[in-house]
Amino acid sequence: MKNLKKVFLRWETFLVVFLILEFVVFGAANPKFLRPASIMTSIVNYISVCIIALFVTLVMITGGIDIQAASIIGLTSIVEGYLWSDLGVNIWVAVVCAIIVAMACGALSGFFVAYCGVQPMVVTLGGSFLYSGLALLVSGLSATPAYQGISGFPSKNDAGEFLEFRFLGKGSIAGIPTQIVVYIVLIFFCAWLLHRSKYGEKLFLIGVNPQAAEYSGVNTRAVIMSTYVLSAVSAAIAGTLLTSNVDSAKYNLGAGYTLAIITAVVLGGTLNTGGKGSILGTVLASLIICILRYGLPLCFGVSTQNLDLPVGVILVLVVLGREIAGQHMISALFKRTRRKA
User: What is the pLDDT of residue 4?
Assistant: First the structure.
């Protein structure tokens, strides 16, 4: 009975109920909402946020934050396009080079946070401007105008099937879009990394008490820096999938994703102060936001330009609710202490 009570009190249970309610409400408002193909398409359109949120969870569990991932999407995209289109580099070599560039960006920001003690918000905010500027600079080197975007990536065979690079964004495996398959693989990887490996234990320990982690023999600086590298790599993967999907490499691809990424992580139950979080919670929260952005325009005619409003409201309510709950817990603790005295 106690175990059942714990399940119902888990935050993930609330997220599952919320997700089910979305399907019930939107499905009742418009039966077209429940079409499996449409739902999968909506997830594919939002997959970049879902992927990056997984790894930003690791960053925030250590007590940090990463708001530069969206700019790394654009940098990754334009680097791949420039290397392939203007320099004639093989597309897969270009993808590897773009991922290495993203790793360097993550390592740079992680170094300032972990080894120089600069606030993560300040570092990643500066990083978002820096990497967006670099993306614009690379775009200026290309013969293709920046507003147009680099397109024409290797795409179809004679049978009309997507292949090579475009298969990542437009192909399917056993009827499931390739991007969703990649996302599922990353979910299992992150779940193992965070909840089943010693690396995950170190992340939680650092988030709860960095000094205790250091005394326990954990190289806190290296671990913290590694989370920003992983987050940047996830942005590179998201940028590659997005570029492959839309067949266009642009410096500003992924712009405006920052709010949704942070909201997905916080809504998923990860504390902004660190020490608590789960991959399952982040996945459920990402799907909630995805379905919300898909259902509101289809079922209630909400303009796509106004979809950031409900996402922002959710973020504020979750943070506010946690603060209120935290104050109640503290006051209850004081009451118990006084009674014992």
Answer: 43
The per-residue pLDDT for 332 is 52
How would you write the chain as a 3-class SS string? Answer: CHHHHHHHHCHHHHHHHHHHHHHHHHHHHCHHHHCHHHHHHHHHHCHHHHHHHHHHHHHHHCCCCCCCHHHHHHHHHHHHHHHHHCCCCCHHHHHHHHHHHHHHHHHHHHHHHHCCCCCHHHHHHHHHHHHHHHHHHHHHHCCCCCCCCECCCCCECCCCCECHHHHHHHCEECCEEHHHHHHHHHHHHHHHHHHCCHHHHHHHHHHHCHHHHHHCCCCHHHHHHHHHHHHHHHHHHHHHHHHHHHCCECCCCCCCCHHHHHHHHHHCCCCCCCCCCCHHHHHHHHHHHHHHHHHHHHHHCCCHHHCHHHHHHHHHHHHHHHHHHHHHHHHHHHHHHHHHC
What contacts 309, CB < 8 A, 6 or more positions away? none
Residue 165 has pLDDT above 90, yes or no: no
Under a CB-based contact definition with an 8 Å cutoff, are residues 48 and 191 in contact?
no
**Cα–Cα distance between 53 and 258 in angstroms, integer?**
10
Backbone angles phi, psi at 15, to 5 degrees: -65, -40
Q: How far apart are CA 21 and CA 37, in angstroms?
A: 20
Strand partners, 172: 177
- The widest CA-to-CA distance across the chain, in whole angstroms, is 82
Q: pLDDT by residue (tens digit) across 112-127?
A: 999 999 999 999 999 9
Whether 229 has a pLDDT exceeding 90, the answer reads: yes
For the chain, give every domain's residue range: 46-145+154-305
Measure the CA–CA gap between 242 and 74, rounded to whole angstroms. Answer: 10
